[in-house]
Amino acid sequence: MVRKMLTIESGFLRGKKVDIVNDSRTRYTSAIVRRSLANMVDFENKVCADVCCGSGIVGFEMISNGAVHVTFVDTSNLSIATVKRNSKSLSVENQVSIVKNDARKFLELYNGTFDIIYSDPPYELGIVDEIVKRVHNVMSENSIFILQCSKREKPSENALKSIKITKERDYGDTFLLFFEKTLKV
Question: Is residue 157 within 8 Å of residue 139, measured between CB atoms?
Fold first, then answer.
């Protein structure tokens, strides 16, 4: 059996291989989207979160491009085990925290903020709005939230009470939406 792997696309870990989650329900962020992220976002010296992380490939791209720390969050035991394996094989264990939790609960209960939060929730499960409604809890006024979602699941206006879309990128069926926190008056 051939082991499937993903390749880190940019930064100092470029070309290194990352194990995938051995679960057919896991969908991966494409190489073109990951390269675009590295070109659009300054991860240097940032504290980041990769929520609904799967294999952790996006979070490892963040580290590869200068993030000082990434918190990986997923509810799947397979994902958590894969991220642990990948962080060890990349020798970045000291730059990661790995949290097994539902994304919605994590975003509601986490006591702190991140500079950059990235989330790629499973498509068509109806949790995009739930994540968007809660992400402001882990954002400072300078934070960036990046959501990867299906075009069929763009967040509703109702979900956008505490954050606003600042940029959109279209990649076929996939949107990358960039948000910042709205200041309450």
Answer: no
Give me 39's structure tokens: 């070109």
Predicted confidence (pLDDT) per residue in 11-53, tens digit: 999 999 999 988 766 777 888 889 999 999 999 999 999 999 9
Interatomic CA distance for residues 88 and 128, integer angstroms: 30
What burial class does residue 146 get, using C-beta atoms within 10 Å of its C-beta: 0-12 exposed, 13-18 middle, 19+ buried?
buried
Q: Helix, strand or coil for residue 137?
A: helix
- In this prediction the pTM is 0.93
Query: pLDDT tier at 152 (50, 70, 90 boundaries)?
Result: confident
Q: How far is CA 178 from the centre of its chain?
A: 12
E strands of the chain, at which residues?
Answer: 5-7, 17-19, 47-51, 69-74, 96-100, 114-119, 139-150, 163-171, 174-181
Phi, psi angle pair for 2, to nearest 5°? -85, 130
